[in-house]
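Recap from last week: sequence in, structure out.
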Amino acid sequence: MRTVLFILCFLQSFMSLAQSEYEFLGVIQLQEDSFISYKISFTEEKGTLTGHTITDMGGPHETKSYLSGYYDEKSNVLEFYESGIVYTKSFVNQNDFCFLHYSGELKRLNEKQHISGAFKGLYSDGKECINGEIHLKNYGKILKRAKKIDRKVERSILISQEKKDQVHLLRDLDSINTHRLNKNETLSMFAEGKTIFLTVYDAGQEDGDKIALSVNGTPLYQNLEALSEKKVIEIPLKKSKTELSVKALTNGTIGGNTVMLEIRDAKNKIETVTNLKKGESAKFVFLRNE
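Predicted structure tokens:
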């Protein structure tokens, strides 16, 4: 009995010291009719928050930034701010990025709460840029509601099967969370270290997706097929700017060219899937942090 009590006390103490993970999904509101999708993911340990934000998810200006902040349980104050760029699809000039700063009241940091209120946008030099409001709900709670709605739609006898097939909130949420590299897009990553590791594979059923890769205009692979087995490619960053071009050589038998690409540097990992048709291309630009 003493041993059991000791184990339970140990586990309780350990769990109280462990980090808690949170995800919130919603929008940034810049004007009455101007909304941009926004997601924050962070861990909380003894009031300190560390994580990431993603702005314009799946859009032409999708940007992932670092998040830092704190939560004071006694005063019910939540503060967080963006402090740098991991990657972006926007035109790159890091000094011109507007970083979101938020401070508001939050009774509890748990899955039942939502985050809402005014935010201030600041450039890296502290000057003000765009201000507005954020409206976020816990992502786990959103998933639960989506599951309930999907079940209600599927069981309804008043909705045709054709319309049922068109309504699938869980699938739509998964699509939003999946980073896609579209035709003619450029994804710029502020890379840590002097090497990038690119992992290429087919995440689903092998269906003949093939791509060509080139680095700074020099062919790296001219006919690379995405298989279930992952292929890891090491790419040295010899210059401050390195371009990796991806060209679709085939359309898979299931949809278009959809190849999973994982990019990992010394600090971060990006997961993306090509959303291309035969002959279309896109590229990555790695900007090495000196």
